[in-house]
Specification:
heterodimer; A: alpha/beta; Four Helix Bundle (Hemerythrin (Met), subunit A); 9-stranded mixed beta sheet; B: alpha/beta; 434 Repressor (Amino-terminal Domain); 8-stranded mixed beta sheet; 8 strands; 54% helix; globular
Chain lengths: 385, 505
């Protein structure tokens, strides 16, 4: 068991470090109040929401703060009318920049032969799309071999072949639909690191599922971040669904548990559970997430999707995130957010190739309808546009 | 310096020992490896190219060092190049003659602006200032609420009103003047750099308050997009500096290089965790090590300081040094160390660990869990006196932990050997001594110097003096440590995940 030795070495060195540095400083331990008591779940009924607008929210329209809820309830008497706006087309919304990628491709196509410079350009194009060194090398080596073998002739053929390779890399046998069944209370768990867009995504998914005729309940499983539950609550209002909250600083598993119980009692079809953003490097936070998943999966709960929310601007660390979360809680799919920006999100290619994790949804903005199912064709086409 | 890049370069340049100088050809392959390492670290493609050229210029024709291997020599050159690229001019914060000094934070959605605003406010407070926070993010649900809560934790008032960002900012400035606050920190909504309307809005917000300092807040895990983003924000706002966030993750952080290159302004601050105290000046040398995937001992030390339960750690270390380190101690210290992150990741941070170990160790959490399970299946007495463990006890332990008696035997045997090693007088000397391991000693020495001194010549004048005084624990930070049950505090309650074995299944 070499591991023991290594572990011991790590422990010993760290201890030495701790002793030598910590003691002289008389540093107090990070004491402080532990987590609050058991979460008391409360259901917040959405006050009758104003009719949904199609346009993305303008800066001038400030969402009501918690203190305004009362007045909001008083004001709005209209029934909840959730309009389903036309979902934006992936290609349209995806990074309006005519990226460097397309520039390289155009330049390439104008060449008759595929010389070294051409390969360099292709490589650069892929790297700039965050496809990553390993995947880029693999893709290009394969193409080079085929050119060498005479299978591909000319720049056009190479570009087309690359496109096809990329598309195929993103294809998934199981398709990328979201798994739902009526076996108990269906739970979709949303996980990921900080700031990726989990809460916003849940808001969008809630809206979508409700429009599809499902009865949705939100679980404010982020009990850590300041005003996280408030944020999700506003999304609940926008989507016209109910939400279960707990005490701030409370146990997130308890909130999810309560939500599943409520859903069972009230006949909700689907629980969307938010969790606090957490870096995969924090062991105890990952342990906490494992527990949340276990609790959510206890009958009558049934976790059918664990969605890793990933920011399209993320670089190679995205693959590490995917790997770690997959190992920890069995991620079933990826939601790629902020694809309306200039980032291409190429890391999902590596994620699919190496981990078999498909992208299921794509986020294209901060509005409640800015969510579309992932489409490999569109995604790749947008890269080359 | 043992680490992945160094090893790869070692392989390439190892045969050069006999020759006198590094030639172009020698260096070519090495430079390719370096380029790969930089790209894997998310450094912008163009920036990486330029860096590699710079390294080539530095290295070609250089005489082979007597004390460093060619691989190490090249790595050092790379490291130096990066430090230069990341460092240079440090940000010197000068306060406005007519208060308040206005600071504006801008960046993409989710980059960490709101948290950074509160951290910055707390930082200013530590400098003896009276900041006011302005919540000008009216776009994201409950953003102002979040800032209010954080402001309370930081002991800084928060101003906002549900009008529009430009109006709020202007009103915030008037409020600061009215209240006699000398620093104004404006948090803005996240926005896409390619969204013309929103970029225009932030320009107008800036126009309304005329900031003395505008910071771009950028996530350390950002990939190739960092350049486009930085460029756009810099063109719109004329940035004065950058705040790099989420450095507590394991993203290599190449974005730092890219952004610094584009903006040409210092990376002023580094945000290294979710608590308000996790905020510090940026250290170019540490970042350079991190980008190269090299060990960063100082960060390890800081993390240990933050995460360890002080008493438990001291106890364990003392017992170890006194040769009384038992399995029980090992178990509790292991819990401490796990707080710092995955053990495999920690291993990467350790200097002086032979590379064979690093390569072959492959610590997987399952193995660690197994070790834990075995120890947990022992009684207190058995942990303290493993000598009493006979055959029947061994079987019981094996059953309880789901392992075999061979596994139990092996653990006991290895631990005994380790104990003997720990008792040997030379061990600690070896750990802290010279050579490669000396790096640890050096780092510790630097560190302790840091604690005592009023200033560190490498740091900016403003913060150096106050660094000593304004350390966490000085009473700032939320009553509960802001942790609310996060790292450190939860541990104390004693309850945690039961490993697979569980005590006595």
């Amino acid at each position: 068991m070499l591991a023991l030795w290594v572990v011991l070495a790590v422990v010993v060195v760290t201890l030495v470090v701790g002793l030598v540095v910590v003691v002289p400083r008389r540093r107090r331990g990070s004491g402080g109040s532990g987590s609050a008591g058991a979460a008391t779940a409360t259901i917040a009924k959405p006050p009758p929401a104003p009719p949904a607008s199609k346009a993305p929210p303008t800066p001038a329209a400030a969402p009501p703060g918690p203190s305004d809820t009362a007045s909001l309830e008083a004001e709005a008497e209209a029934e909840v009318e959730v309009e389903v706006a036309v979902a934006p087309e992936l290609r349209e919304r995806m990074g309006k920049t005519r990226g460097l990628f397309s520039g390289y491709v155009r330049a390439l196509r104008s060449r008759s032969s595929v010389d070294d410079e051409a390969w360099d350009d292709l490589e650069e194009a892929l790297l700039r799309a965050d496809v990553g060194v390993v995947t880029t090398t693999a893709l290009l080596e394969d193409l080079r071999a085929r050119v060498h073998a005479g299978e591909l002739r000319g720049a056009d053929a190479v570009v087309a072949a690359l496109r096809e390779d990329l598309r195929r890399s993103l294809d998934t046998a199981d398709g990328n639909g979201l798994s739902f069944d009526t076996d108990g209370t269906c739970v979709w768990l949303f996980v990921g690191v900080n700031g990726v867009g989990k809460t916003t995504t849940i808001g969008k998914v809630a809206r979508r599922e409700k429009a599809a005729g499902r009865s949705v309940l939100l679980a404010a499983g982020d009990t850590f971040r300041a005003a996280a539950a408030e944020q999700l609550e506003q999304w609940a209002q926008r989507a016209g669904v109910e939400i279960v909250r707990g005490a701030e600083g409370g146990d997130p598993s308890a909130v999810v548990f309560d939500a599943v119980q409520r859903a069972q009692a009230r006949g909700n079809d689907l629980v969307l559970a938010d969790t606090a953003g957490r870096l995969h490097t924090k062991v105890n936070l990952v342990e906490e997430l494992k527990k949340i998943r276990r609790v959510a999966d206890r009958p009558p709960g049934h976790v059918t999707e664990v969605l890793l929310v990933l920011d399209a601007t993320t670089g190679q660390n995205g693959l590490t995130q995917a790997r770690q979360f997959l190992e920890a809680v069995g991620v079933t799919g990826v939601v790629l957010t902020k694809l309306d920006g200039s980032a291409k999100g190429g890391i999902v290619i590596a994620i699919q190739r190496e981990l078999g994790l498909p992208v299921k949804l794509v986020g294209l903005g901060e509005g409640p309808d800015d969510l579309v199912p992932f489409d490999a064709d569109e995604f790749v086409a947008a890269l080359f546009d | 310096m043992f680490d992945a890049l160094s090893d790869r370069l070692e392989g390439i340049l190892g045969r050069l020992r006999s020759r006198g100088r590094l030639s172009d050809a020698d260096v070519d392959e090495a430079l390719r490896e370096i380029r790969t390492a930089l790209l894997e670290a998310d450094v912008d493609v163009g920036v990486a190219r330029a860096l590699v050229q710079g390294i080539r210029a530095r290295v070609v024709g250089e005489e082979l060092s007597k004390s460093l291997s060619p691989g190490q020599q090249v790595v050092k050159a790379v490291h130096d190049q990066l430090v230069e690229a990341l460092g240079g001019e440090t940000l010197r914060l000068a306060y406005a003659s007519t208060p308040p000094t206005v600071v504006l934070l801008a960046g993409l959605q989710g980059s960490g602006k709101t948290t950074a605003s509160a951290k910055l406010a707390r930082w200013f407070r530590q400098q003896g200032r009276n900041p006011l926070l302005v919540g000008a993010d009216l776009q994201r649900p409950a953003a102002v609420e979040q800032l209010r809560i954080l402001g309370e934790q930081a002991g800084v008032p928060v101003f906002s009103e549900p009008t529009d960002p430009v109006a709020v900012a202007a009103a915030g400035l008037r409020e600061a003047q009215r209240l006699g606050r000398d620093v104004l920190i404006v948090d803005t909504a996240g926005r896409l750099a390619i969204d013309e309307a929103l970029m225009d809005e932030v320009r107008r917000v800036s126009g309304a308050v005329s900031p003395h300092y505008t910071f771009l807040v950028i996530d350390a895990m950002t990939g190739q997009d960092a350049v486009a983003t930085a460029r756009a924000f810099h063109d719109s706002l004329a940035l004065d500096g950058v705040i790099l966030t989420k450095l507590d993750g394991d993203a290599r952080g190449g974005a730092a290089l890219s952004v610094k290159d584009v903006v040409g302004r210092p990376i002023a601050f580094a945000s290294t965790g979710e608590r308000l105290a996790d905020f510090d000046l940026f250290h170019p040398d540490r970042m350079a090590s991190r980008i190269l995937g090299m060990g960063d001992v100082l960060t390890l030390i800081e993390q240990a300081e933050r995460e360890f339960d002080h008493d438990v750690a001291t106890e364990g270390a003392t017992r170890m040094l006194e040769g009384r380190f038992t399995l029980e101690d090992f178990l509790s210290q292991l819990q401490q160390v796990k707080k710092l992150g995955s053990l495999g990741g920690l291993l990467a941070l350790m200097p002086g660990v032979p590379k064979e170990v690093k390569q072959n160790a492959n610590i997987d959490d399952g193995q660690v869990a197994q070790v834990e399970a075995i120890i947990r299946s022992m009684t207190r007495r058995e942990r303290g006196e493993p000598g009493v463990i006979d055959g029947s006890r061994r079987s019981r332990i094996a059953r309880g932990s789901g392992t075999t008696t061979q596994d139990v035997n092996q653990l006991l045997r290895q631990f005994k050997e380790a104990q003997q090693l720990m008792r040997s007088p030379g061990m600690l000397g070896g750990m802290l001594g010279g050579g490669a391991k000396g790096k640890l000693a050096q780092a510790l020495a630097d560190r302790m110097g840091d604690a005592g001194d009023a200033g560190d010549p490498g740091l900016d004048s403003l913060s150096a003096r106050s660094l000593g005084a304004g350390r966490p624990g000085a009473g700032f930070g939320p009553p509960g440590g802001g942790a609310k049950g996060r790292p450190g505090t939860k541990k104390k309650k004693g309850g945690r995940v039961t490993p697979k074995g569980g005590g006595g299944r």
